[in-house]
Amino acid sequence: MKKNKEKTTRIFTPWKKLLKELREEAGYSQRELAVKCGMPQRTIAEYENCMSARELSVYKIEKILDTLGYEIDVFLKAEVGV
Question: What is the pLDDT of residue 79?
């Protein structure tokens, strides 16, 4: 019997746009940023493309932003539209 795979739902969030912009401004590829953050490149790609069904991890967001030279308030402002 075949298992039904759950379809990934894209979720719109300002984080998607912000992460990619900050990464590109810093001159990192997804792979380079992932290596610097100590996480898989797939995680960066999922966060940028909002393809992950799991919630964004505050720890991972903070780690990514710290690597890019930003504070967590950048993310929080993006989420509330400030």
Answer: 59
